[in-house]
Fold this sequence. Notes:
Blueprint: H1 2-30, H2 32-54, H3 76-90, H4 92-113, H5 125-147
Amino acid sequence: MTVIMIMLAVIGGATLSAQAAINGQLGNSVGVFKSAFLTFSVGALVTALLIFFFEPKQAVSLMDVPKWQLLGALCGVPYIVVMVLAVQRIGTAVATVAVILGQLSMSMLIDNFGWLNNEAIPFSTSRLAAVLCLSIALYFIYSSNKSRPASA
């Protein structure tokens, strides 16, 4: 089951990269905020349909959960806006690796300190090595962008 979950996460990451590239182009055409609005509007519609047809009844409603848990919805807005802007300027690969570096760094802080009611998982040298390797990957991907000849 763990392997399946990892594969699904990789597929989810692949779709985020495709979304970033598509939204970057859409942002060029219609503007950053209109692109973000379309992303959230279509996403809300699809999610509403999924809830209607597939979501089993829950004992707790959205209004019954601790209110801080509802703040997670706001985290998507900066991500989409930043990606639309960043992809236009630095490309999909650099923007995506930079986002993953940010995700990895914050997730390790959340794990280490047990923030947001998560189980604490201590920081280790292998986790530090992962962040360093990803930082090096970001540097090389960004450097290869800068070294390519400008297109007309």
